[in-house]
Amino acid sequence: MSDDAPREEGARRGLTRRSLFKGAGAAAAAGAVFRSLDASAKDDVPAGPRTQGPGKAKLTLQVNGQSREVQAEPRETLLEVLRLPLDLTGAKPVCNRGQCGACTVWLDGTPVYACSVLAVEAEGRKVTTVEGLGNPDDMHAVQSAFVEKDALQCGFCTSGLVMSAAWAVGKHGPDLSEEQARAACSGNLCRCGTYPHVVEAAIAAAKTAKKGG
Amino acid sequence: MKAFQFVRPRSSTEAAQGLADSADARVHSGGCDLLDRMKERIEEPAVLVSLCDAEGLGDVRIEEDGSIWIGARVTLAQLAESDVVRRFLPTLGEAAGLAASPQLRHRATIAGNLAQHTRCGYYRVKSFPCLKRGGDSCPVRADGGVQDTAGIFGNAACASAHPSSLAPVLGSLDAEIAIRDAKTLRFVAFADFWAAPAKGRASDTILKSGEVIEAVRLPARDAKQHVGFAEIRQKKAFDWALVSCAVRYETDAEGRVTQARAWLGSVAPAPYRATKAEAALVGKAVTDEVAVKVGDAALADATPLAGTTYKVQLAKVALKRALAAAREKA
Ligand SMILES: Cc1cc2nc3c(=O)[nH]c(=O)nc-3n(C[C@H](O)[C@H](O)[C@H](O)COP(=O)(O)OP(=O)(O)OC[C@H]3O[C@@H](n4cnc5c(N)ncnc54)[C@H](O)[C@@H]3O)c2cc1C
Ligand code: FES
Ligand code: FES
């Protein structure tokens, strides 16, 4: 699925620009920006583009198959919202600059760096974190394969690598090649150098998988 | 990041209108570059006009005249996987597929890739003085400046390098940038899209504050044209190019070049058109020996700093490899 998947639902939900302006004191200066458009609006028909923030506003996110409501500012990244209000600490903050992969989650089924996505952008889209993939009692094939193949040391990169490896397994199925597994995991850095075992784990898990699953 | 208002226009026109209303707004596309700068607080806009809900910017399509239209929000992952790109613009698909990492390619868009700011370490850290951020001079050029990724052309005032590895490909294919403002849509030739570094000017493009890139348009390509791309990096994956190069040429019946384009990336504050390489190619059949001469011609005017002399040789090698790839790829 691409980045540009339709997101009608999320875009329509939530406050209108007009009601937001009323509530957001700190927004006054920024709000002035769109006042010219606003003035031409008829009552209750939101004119011009939808606007959020700068203060906190309600966001509804679809995380691991559940609908979760949070209060967040536009400047909060998806990673911050997952970890703090939602208490999903699987995705790790390491570089916070899109350069390490520890925060990898899936957005509509494709891996992205949660530190480089704004939480407001994730509305109406499916977010999957390592917690949603499986849990200790019911592990995803890739998670069990990481245990079996000893694919982790300190573990800091692991949840991110699991998300990348599981994506590769879902995409390529049982035919997953070493090259494809390496390419899929190339955006995840591991200081402990677990890469060879990670690739082995991905390929072992793929053997048990169905294509596209 | 400093708090900001997030505006979600439904179209590029609405985005342009929004931008025109505020001096302190920025376009937000994939956010891979912009959010980094905001986290470093080298930029603190009050408003982000996001293209995340804008319609009609996400497709690659072939126009009636055979030209190819790539919407501003097309991601690098889409480019790498698009059948149209693979078939008609193979070097673009190749460059997009090699860039960054899968996670970034799923987010990074073609417009953001062109308009991204330099990765210069001085520019990116607020506590350093930097010409682009209003300082008096470029610290890269100063004694003891860290120079290893700096530019080797056009570096007299600022030695930054434009980091896009897609840009040289788009240059070699004679791309045009479709720019929307509140009232019109205009097309700018790729070579005219860039602005030289100046005190206080962070962006390397001619885009003004009320303007939005709507698309990148590529003229219909004659299937007989040869195209090639090469990129040299320290690491095999998930790394920036030290130098990238894209070429395109046509030959006559005897295999002699009649028309050529050669562009280099990461060597100057903007993508660099190697016109001397183009001139050196015309009239010759492309052999390894010719490729070496072309490289020498292209780099004759380079002005490397002490820390970037290696880039001169690297750029020659990149040109040679791109030409070798082009010989095979018609
Ligand atoms: C670790 C890492 C490795 C990377 N490696 C590579 C690489 O190998 N090759 C490469 O080419 N790149 C590489 N990149 C850069 C990456 O590709 C760019 O950051 C990305 O393409 C920017 O696109 P975006 O959509 O995320 O832009 P944004 O971050 O949203 O925007 C970038 C800039 O462009 C402006 N902008 C965006 N869209 C528009 C528009 N439609 N109209 C007007 N202005 C606009 C924004 O205002 C902003 O100033 C790498 C990045 C990282 C973090
Ligand atoms: S924390 Fe997001 S990529 Fe490093
Ligand atoms: S296991 Fe320690 S960083 Fe990867």
Which SSEs are present, and which pair or pack?
The complex is a heterodimer of chains A (213) and B (330).
Chain A: H1 8-12, H2 17-23, H3 28-31, H4 35-39, E1 50-52, E2 57-63, E3 66-72, H5 78-83, E4 104-107, E5 110-113, E6 126-128, H6 130-133, H7 141-148, H8 158-172, H9 178-184, H10 195-207
Helix pairs in contact in A: 7-8, 7-10, 8-10
Chain B: E1 5-8, H1 12-20, E2 25-28, H2 34-39, E3 47-50, E4 60-62, E5 68-71, H3 76-81, H4 83-88, H5 90-98, H6 102-105, H7 110-115, H8 167-172, E6 176-180, E7 185-189, E8 212-218, E9 226-232, E10 243-251, E11 257-265, E12 272-273, H9 275-281, H10 288-299, H11 309-328
Parallel strand pairs in B: 1-3, 2-3
Antiparallel strand pairs in B: 4-5, 5-8, 6-7, 6-8, 9-10, 10-11, 11-12
Helix pairs in contact in B: 9-10, 10-11
Bound molecules: flavin-adenine dinucleotide and FE2/S2 (inorganic) cluster (2 copies).
Residues 93-96, 98-103, 113, 115 of chain A line the site of one FE2/S2 (inorganic) cluster.
Condensed summary:
The complex is a heterodimer of chains A (213) and B (330). With 213 residues, chain A is α+β, with helices and mostly antiparallel strands. Chain A has helices at residues 8-12, 17-23, 28-31, 35-39, 78-83, 130-133, 141-148, 158-172, 178-184, 195-207; strands spanning 50-52, 57-63, 66-72, 104-107, 110-113, 126-128.
The CATH architecture classification of the largest domain in chain A is Orthogonal Bundle
- Ligand species: flavin-adenine dinucleotide, FE2/S2 (inorganic) cluster
* Number of β-strand runs of chain B: 12
Strand fraction of chain B: 15-25%
* Proportion of residues in extended strands of chain A: 5-15%
Order of helices and strands of chain A: HHHHEEEHEEEHHHHH
Instruction: Report helical residue fraction of chain A.
Output: 25-40%
Strands of the widest sheet of chain B, in order across it, are 4-5-8-6-7
- The N- to C-terminal Cα distance of chain B equals 47 Å
Helical segment count of chain A: 10
Net shape of chain B: globular
Rg over CA atoms of chain A = 20 Å
The H-level CATH homologous superfamily of the largest domain in chain A, spelled out, is: [2Fe-2S]-binding domain
SS content category of chain A: alpha+beta
Characterize the quaternary organization of these chains.
Answer: heterodimer
Count of extended strands of chain A: 6
Strand order within the widest beta sheet of chain A: 3-2-6-4-5
Largest sheet of chain A: 5 strands, mixed
The SSE string of chain B, one letter per element, is EHEHEEEHHHHHHEEEEEEEHHH
Q: What is the mean pLDDT of chain A?
A: 83
Shape category of chain A: elongated
